[in-house]
Design goal:
The complex is a heterodimer. By secondary structure, chain A is of the alpha/beta class. Helices cover 64% and strands 10% of the residues of chain A. Chain A is built from 20 helices and 12 strands. The mean pLDDT of chain A is 84. Classes of the chains: A alpha/beta, B alpha/beta.
């Protein structure tokens, strides 16, 4: 998992390797500087080598400090480069992966959780990574360097490390393993809390209309308190590391002074050596502490690592085949014994054994009750989902054989739950066709009955939309979405209840434009209103995931009781 | 916070650091006893550490040296060593306990403070007017709860204790240094000035880049959110590559900004550390000069002993270390102050004002027909209207009459959405608002329940100016069913009783049956206890809409607003719930907004709106007879085809 994520270091590998290298330079200076210091005191001030020696050594030390500073600064620079670059690549990989996700993949992770993974989690991983490349070389070298000096001073006394290093190591490891699951729990609670904020932001109108501010606050407080409890539980362990470290360090120092003091009194050890040895004890255990901090950082970010790799591991289940067909012959659509289940469970399908043929250029209406799987059926045509059983064909060829881009460009679908993106109106429209000229855009907008209202805005096509298209009404949004789809010049247009917020007159005009100006295009219209579909060539009546009838308006009026019922419910009381 | 720290702050980037710090401190003051204990523990710990270290000197001077030189016997020396070591160990043990204790308390304080801030932020968010949500992106608000509180956490849990203990050490050591040699202290002070200068230089640079990084993060996160939320559309338009390219651009900007910010952030450590080393060397040289017998300063007032130099050198080390600690915390503090500032920015947003004083109360009717306020739930409601002038209270029975009198309104001052709207909805009347999209239908309902306010007296509810009515009571007397069927995480039953949390299960089922939702609910795996995921993703759009109708039905309001409530339900289902809907609407004042004219046909009054004006009004037959816009709309679908 780690390896896979670290692959994102990519072209920044150079910096990632240079960072620990220059850090070695810094740490070497840091180990040597105390030696020079000792010399200044022992031989310069206490000793008898005089002022020149002090000046020499002092100068040397300043020089070393400058070098160390230089190395440190380089380390900062390289580390920042490597870290930021790594985060950039990782973010890109994640974004690309999610962009390629199929509808089913997106359904699996929630939108909110995907966003957290791309933002907060990447941030955590970046911090851990930077810390790691800076500390990874520093801590062990400090540890080894100081150990060498310590053994050099007194090998027998160094035996205390045989005891204190493992004790500290084991304790730190214990904390590490116990804290890890607790951090996972904490992050989960965190997600839930964020979800609650998100929910309130999107549905604030409902919250206010039902005067539920206080209850929602109570609900949020509860989840915020759960976050705090989980945080306490996890961090309670982490804050143990510092006192633990102190305890071991002080115990070691006391042992060293006790044993070493005995040696001094026995005359086998020098006082100066003893005090140097104590300094090294501090350095050794400090560097061990640093190692543990790296681990802690990894623990905290481990959950983020896991969550990121979950996204990277998720394979989009709808991809272009090898040797894809890059051209759609015509706009015919065939369903051959198609069944579908959102969970891929063959025994529990929402749509069963659908067989139908739609000729190229036909205009088809689809009518059916709530939950009759109208949307499901049409989503199979541009391969937004794959059929669980059977085959869907476009232009006589199984949709799974087409290049996805080709298929989806030729099959333009206007979704029921549609969105516009921040940017100008024209930016949004050009999603359909980047290279569309102003004339082409305007033509599509006229067909979708959007041109007039766009021109009524002071900035016309250059009007800037808020996020989610907040500054246009629902009906205007739907018309923009239709225009956007028409710009693709597709062979098949699918309108999934896309005019529900458009008024009847405008709705009729849109259909008229589609019929007259896009006569060669297969048009599939899902609608609630009979009036919307009655002038279609044929109307498909769906009931509970099955075809109830597929015939002309007139025949359906005569023969299909569902259609009759729907019609009656809408015609009642017409003057 | 005292002295040097504040000085550095002011040089940093947050716009008004002093004010922000004071405000953060106010939160911490909630825990003033804990904080006081933490302070004491930190100070005790820092002193203890210095003290324990000095035992080492004692051991050398009082136990080891005398033994080596033969003043003490080995037994005596060992005994002395043992007792001193016991003292040292004891002090260390106490220090360790103190250190654990204060980090434990700080953990409690920091998580608690964070909790308070989060709660306050959410509570405040819930009180903000709708205008705020209409004009701010969700991602922006979201990051107050996530990024900004996170950085604050970092400051609260680490930086404060760190800075505090460093300060204590610095001050202690400084006092000692002055007592040993003021001449050398001057050198240290000069060095310190240099250090502070560098800290502020790097700090302001780093603050600058941090802000750049922050805004780049904002841009990237916003983009990610928008693209992921709109991913289905991205797919349908094969827009993956373009969206990836745009992302790359933003991502590169972030990478550059982040490189700079991180460089400066981590520069502080090595610079401070090594300045410390340099200081050591310089002190050694200067000390050597001052102490050297026969040196230039021998015999003058500044001359010092060799021992003093040794001690002083140790002081410089314990002086610069905490100083560089403070330097390293600087960035964290800066970043979190900027985050805190943004949080406080939201907290300072003006909440929805409510000067209403007319409230809704339960009443009973006396034998003579006068109203009497009742504590109990009587099922009869009235507006309680206190009059400030004479202190009297009048009761007006809740009937559900809504009058709009010459209402003109625009969301912005320069764009009027509604012109001179006048209409009266008598209790029990069904008013339909018809018109093209953007004609201002929804705006009218936004005004009736005071999502947005219009000037005094323009809208009246049962004859009372709605600006005088408490918002909560006003809104509860109006149930809304909106076009976007938002549901909440929780069970189906919870969602239905959303507006009346105390409703019994029977009431829930009754409401569901009324809305014709019962039939599909009982088919769900766990019936009414089925958990709905965020926004009811596991239900169809129509089913969600049925739940929102049930949700409105259960609060049994005198006025009902149906804003495109049935546009996602097919007409056959609509016909099926028709009876229930009629039952729901019976006896209530109903505002219906619909495109589907079949649903407005039986309204008592139909208002046809265009460009914010009522252009036609009357009942269905009258309007058809007028052969105006309504007639066109109604028959348009057929004629145009």
């Amino acid at each position: 998992m780690l390896k896979k994520i670290l692959k994102s270091v990519g072209e920044y590998k150079k910096w990632a390797f240079l960072t620990p290298l220059v850090m070695i330079g810094e740490v070497l200076m840091e180990i040597l500087i105390p030696l020079v210091m000792a010399k200044i005191i022992d031989e310069g001030i206490n000793g008898n080598r005089g002022m020149t020696y002090i000046l020499e050594m002092g100068g040397l030390m300043v020089l070393m400090a400058c070098l160390s500073m230089g190395f440190g600064a380089l380390g900062s620079r390289f580390g920042a480069k490597a870290g930021a670059g790594f985060a950039k690549n990782l973010r890109k990989r994640l974004f690309d992966a999610t962009a390629d996700f199929s509808f089913r993949n997106v359904d699996k992770f929630s939108t909110a959780s995907l966003v957290t993974r791309l933002t907060t989690d990447v941030n955590n991983v970046q911090n851990a990574f930077m810390m790691f490349i800076r500390m990874a070389a520093r801590a062990p070298i400090m540890l080894i360097g100081a150990l060498i000096f310590a053994v050099n001073i007194n090998a027998r006394l160094s035996l205390v490390f045989l005891f204190s290093i493992p004790v500290l190591g084991i304790c730190l490891a214990l904390i590490f393993f116990r804290a890890h699951p607790r951090f996972r729990v904490m992050l989960k609670k965190y997600d839930a809390m964020n979800g609650s904020v998100q929910e309130n932001l999107t549905a604030i109108r409902v919250v206010k209309a039902f005067v539920r501010e206080k209850d929602e606050t109570k609900k949020f407080s509860m989840s915020a308190e759960e976050v705090r409890a989980a945080q306490l539980k996890a961090e309670k362990l982490v804050i143990l590391t510092n006192p633990l470290m102190m305890l071991v360090m002080y115990a070691t120092i006391i042992a060293v002074v006790w044993i070493g003091g005995g040696m001094v009194m026995g005359g086998t050890f020098q006082i100066g050596e003893l005090s140097s040895f104590v300094t090294y004890v501090t350095q050794i255990l400090m560097s061990l502490m640093m190692v543990s901090m790296i681990f802690m950082m990894l623990v905290i970010s481990w959950a983020s690592f896991t969550r990121i790799s979950e996204v990277l591991d998720e394979k989009s289940d709808i991809v272009s085949p090898e040797n894809p067909v890059k051209e759609v012959k015509d706009g015919s659509v065939d369903f051959e014994d198609v069944s579908f289940s959102y969970l891929g469970d063959e025994s529990n399908c929402v749509m069963n054994h659908i067989n139908l043929h739609i000729g190229s250029g036909e205009t088809i209406g689809i009518i059916g009750g709530t939950g009759s799987s109208k949307s499901t059926l049409v989503q199979l045509i541009p391969r937004l989902y794959d059929a669980t059983l059977g085959a869907v064909k476009v232009g006589g060829l199984d949709v799974r054989r087409y290049d996805l881009d080709t298929l989806r460009t030729q099959v333009a679908m206007v979704l029921q739950k549609n969105v516009l993106f921040s940017g100008t109106i024209i930016d949004n429209l050009r999603w359909g066709n980047e290279n569309a000229t102003q004339e082409e855009v305007e033509e599509a907008c006229r067909q979708a009955q959007a041109h007039d209202f766009i021109m009524s805005f002071p900035d016309g096509y250059q009007t800037v939309m808020g996020q989610g298209g907040v500054n246009v009404s629902g009906g205007q949004k739907q018309r923009l979405c239709i225009a956007r789809a028409l710009l693709k010049r597709p062979k098949i247009v699918i309108l999934d209840d896309s005019t529900s917020a458009v008024d009847t007159a405008t709705d009729a005009k849109i259909r008229k434009a589609l019929r007259e100006q896009l006569s060669g295009t297969t048009t599939i219209i899902i609608a609630q209103r009979i009036s919307t579909v009655q002038d279609c060539d044929r109307v498909l009546v769906l009931d509970n995931g099955e075809i109830s009838a597929f015939d002309t308006h007139e025949n359906l009026l005569k023969n299909n009781h569902i259609y009759q019922e729907v019609n009656a419910s809408q015609q009642k009381g017409v003057a | 916070m005292p002295g040097p720290n504040r000085a550095k702050m002011a040089m940093g980037k947050p716009k008004n650091a002093g004010k922000t710090i004071r405000r953060v401190l106010k939160y911490l003051l909630q825990y003033k006893y804990s904080m006081a204990i933490v302070m004491v523990l930190i100070i005790a710990n820092s002193f203890g550490q210095v003290y324990a270290m000095s035992y080492l000197q004692n051991i050398i001077d009082d136990a080891l040296m005398p033994t080596v030189s033969g003043v003490l016997t080995i037994t005596e020396g060992t005994a002395k060593l043992l007792s001193l070591l016991m003292w040292m160990g004891g002090t260390y043990l106490i220090c360790t306990i103190f250190s654990y204790a204060y980090s434990r308390i700080m953990l409690h304080v920091s998580t608690g403070t964070l909790l308070t801030i989060r709660k306050e932020l959410f509570t405040h968010m819930e009180t903000l007017p709708l205008r705020y949500f209409d004009t701010h992106t969700h991602g922006d608000l979201m990051s107050r709860f996530t990024n900004d509180t996170d950085t604050m956490r970092e400051m609260l849990s680490n930086s404060i204790a760190n800075v505090l203990s460093s300060l204590v050490t610095v001050i202690t050591v400084f006092v000692k240094m002055v007592s040993y040699s003021w001449a050398l202290t001057i050198i240290v002070i000069l060095m310190m000035v240099l250090q502070l200068f560098l800290i502020s230089k790097i700090g302001s640079k780093s603050g600058h880049y941090f802000q750049k990084q922050q805004s780049a993060i904002g841009a990237v996160n916003g983009y990610i959110e928008e693209q992921i939320a709109g991913q289905k559309v991205v797919k349908v338009f094969c827009h993956e590559d373009e969206s990836k390219n745009d992302f790359d651009k933003l991502n590169s900007v972030l990478c550059d900004a982040s490189t700079e910010a991180q460089t400066f952030a981590s520069l502080m450590g090595p610079i401070m550390n090594n300045l410390g080393h340099a200081l050591y060397a310089i002190t050694a040289i200067a000390g050597g000069l001052l102490a050297l017998e026969g040196g230039p300063f021998a015999g003058t007032a500044v001359a010092i002993s060799l021992g003093t130099v040794v001690v002083f050198l140790q002081f410089t080390r314990s002086f610069t270390q905490p100083l560089s600690q403070i330097g390293q915390q600087f960035n964290v503090i800066l970043a979190s102050l900027a985050g805190a500032e943004r949080i406080f920015g939201v907290l300072d947003e003006k909440p929805e004002m409510d000067e209403g004083y007319v409230s809704l109360v339960n009443v009973t009717y006396d034998a003579d027909g006068t109203l009497r306020e009742s504590e109990k739930h009587t099922g009869e409601w009235a507006w309680r209207h206190p009059h400030k002038a004479d202190g009297s209270v009048t009761y007006t029975p809740l009937k559900g009459e809504i009058v709009l009198d010459d209402v003109t309104f625009g969301y912005n001052e320069d764009k009027v959405v509604l012109h001179d709207i006048t209409m009266t909805a008598k209790p029990g009347e069904k008013i339909a608002l018809v018109g093209s999209t953007g004609a201002g239908k929804t705006t009218i309902t936004n005004l009736i329940n005071r999502f947005y306010d219009v000037p005094e007296g323009k809208i009246r509810y049962d004859g009372i100016n709605i600006n005088k009515i408490k918002k909560d009571d006003l809104r509860l007397s109006l149930a809304m069913v909106l076009q976007d069927a938002h549901l909440f995480t929780g069970t189906v039953a919870d969602n239905i009783r959303y507006g009346r949390p105390d409703a019994s299960m029977e009431d829930v089922v009754k409401a569901a049956k009324l809305a014709n939702a019962d039939s599909f609910i009982v088919h769900l795996e766990k019936g009414y206890d089925t958990m709905l995921t965020a926004d009811g993703g596991n239900l169809s759009m129509g089913q969600r809409q049925l739940l929102t109708i049930a949700r409105a039905a259960i609060i049994d309001p005198p006025v009902l607003v149906l804003d495109e409530a049935t546009s996602s339900i097919d007409t056959r289902t609509e016909a099926l719930i028709g009876e229930g809907m009629n039952r729901l609407m019976k006896g209530r004042t109903v505002f219906v907004i619909a495109h589907r004219l079949s649903t407005v046909r039986n309204a008592d009054k139909i208002m046809v709106l265009e460009h914010g004006e009522i252009i036609e009004r009357g009942n269905h037959d009258e309007l058809i007879a007028q052969k105006g816009k309504y007639y066109q709309l109604y028959t348009g679908a057929f004629e145009l085809s």
